[in-house]
Design a protein that fits this description.
The chain is of the alpha/beta class and 396 residues long. The chain folds into two domains: 6-173, Phosphoglycerate kinase, N-terminal domain (Rossmann fold), CATH 3.40.50.1260; 186-375, Rossmann fold. The chain is built from 17 helices and 15 strands. It has a six-stranded parallel β-sheet with strand order 3-4-2-1-5-6. A six-stranded parallel β-sheet has the order 9-8-7-13-14-15, with helices on both faces. Strand 13 (308-312), helix 13 and strand 14 form a beta-alpha-beta unit. Helix 13 packs across helix 14 (346-354). It is elongated and about 70 Å long. The two termini are 20 Å apart. Bound molecules: adenosine monophosphate.
């Protein structure tokens, strides 16, 4: 069901509560922001609200303060950086709820950033009273925190029903648009490229994507549990023995769609600079650490024919060059395919950067866990809570 967008709202002179994801990485002691990417990602939504004469209240969590006030997890550095980026003052509230916060009423064109939501354990507990207090601050709710949309917390779910209207921010809109296009209505052929360490983390994604995609290319350590399920040798590669049966079932369900590596880069010891060789069958004392050149060629050919590509997870231990070669080569193949490409997961994003092809990827999701749940076909509670577009249209 399509959700209302901030662009559908009349924001003039309204106080809009925007749930953002300002969970930025901080230096030791919490004084400096080491990457402002997440702040920049929500700038379009904040600017849109300001340009449309709204008073803006922003709220986010930062780190894991576990319900305690911690100076090293204050949003103070975020308020400073946001103010620089917006070119206007950003006031930091002393807390996220309470009489002192309720007394600060930002005027249209003003920005108030609430202090870290997780200084209160009630946020993650989705506490009704805490939700009510948050909702009482504003007229309209907007969620731009895709990365937190898979969590049913007070600021993503609890408070939403307390306000008459709840819409997606521009970043949330973009995430939902591209992920939905890839998973629900892809242009074909649609190819998924899945890698990473564990089958167990991606079972639901594989099960869901089997019904969506035309080809499912498996790489990374995950491939070895599948190879074991086919009684192929895996040596000392990372295998999840308790998932072999499940891997066998998935192989049966997927049939020809599911492709496994044809060759491997194998070592005897995982360490930088370890001697390695390309093998089609992994020896008893060998460990597979990357897909081999034949696999790169076969997977690249399938990717170049694709019209839609969904990618999550590296093809090998890509943090340890040269075992990044397979992942980087496929990042280039994804980029060169000209397909709509939707990428989730921090590792795949890093591979895209090191391949120098970031500008050729259609959409890199900002939400790790949330994008995985979306690809697995689950409804995200933070998205489900938003007002349906149809409901707004039906209003008198
Ligand atoms: P994930 O978080 O599940 O996407 O897994 C990412 C991790 O999988 C990375 O840290 C990789 O080093 C690891 N990985 C990928 N391929 C292999 C492999 N063949 N053996 C061990 N670890 C791997």
């Amino acid at each position: 069901m399509a959700k209302l967008s901030i662009k559908d709202l009349d924001l003039k002179n309204k106080t809009v509560f925007i749930r953002v994801d300002f969970n930025v990485p901080l230096s030791e002691g919490g004084r400096e922001i080491t990457s402002d990417k997440r702040i920049r990602a929500s700038l379009p939504t904040i600017q849109y609200a300001l340009e449309h004469s709204a008073a803006v209240i922003l709220a986010s969590h930062l780190g894991r303060p576990k319900g305690k006030r911690r100076q090293d997890m204050s949003l103070a550095p975020v308020a400073v950086r946001l103010s620089e980026l917006l070119g206007r003052p950003v006031r930091l509230a002393p807390d996220s709820v309470g009489p002192e916060v309720a007394a600060i009423r930002p005027k249209p064109g003003e920005v108030l950033l609430l202090e870290n939501l997780r200084f209160h354990s009630e946020e993650e507990a989705n506490d009704p009273d805490f939700s009510r207090q948050l909702a009482s601050l504003a007229d309209v709710y907007v969620n731009d925190a895709f990365g937190s949309a898979h969590r049913a917390h007070a600021s993503t779910v609890g408070m939403v029903s307390q306000l008459p209207i709840a819409a997606a921010g521009l970043l949330m809109d973009k995430e939902l648009e591209w992920l939905s296009r890839a998973v629900k209505n892809p242009e074909r052929p649609c190819v998924a490229l899945l890698g990473g360490a564990k089958v167990s983390d991606k079972i639901e994604i594989i099960e869901n994507l089997i019904h969506v995609v035309d080809e499912l290319l498996i790489g990374g350590a995950m491939a070895y549990t599948f190879l074991r399920a086919k009684n192929e040798p895996t040596g000392r590669s990372l295998v999840e023995p308790e998932k072999i049966d499940l891997a066998r079932q998935l192989l049966e369900k997927a049939g020809e769609k599911l492709k496994l590596p044809l060759d491997h880069v194998a070592v005897r010891e995982i360490k930088p600079g370890a001697p390695h060789e390309v093998v089609s069958r992994i020896g008893p004392d060998q460990i597979g650490v990357d897909i081999g050149p034949k696999t790169v060629e076969a997977y690249s050919a399938l990717l170049s024919a694709a019209k839609t590509i969904i990618w999550n997870g590296p093809m090998g231990i890509f943090e340890m060059p040269p075992f990044d070669a397979g992942t980087v080569a496929l990042a280039k193949a994804v980029a060169d395919s000209g397909a709509v490409s939707v990428v989730g997961g921090g590792d795949s994003e890093k591979a895209i950067k090191s391949a120098g092809v970031s500008d050729k990827i259609t959409h890199v999701s900002t939400g790790g866990g949330a994008s995985l749940e979306f690809l697995a076909g689950f409804e995200l509670p933070g998205v489900a809570a938003l007002t349906d577009k149809a409901a707004k249209i039906a209003e008198p």
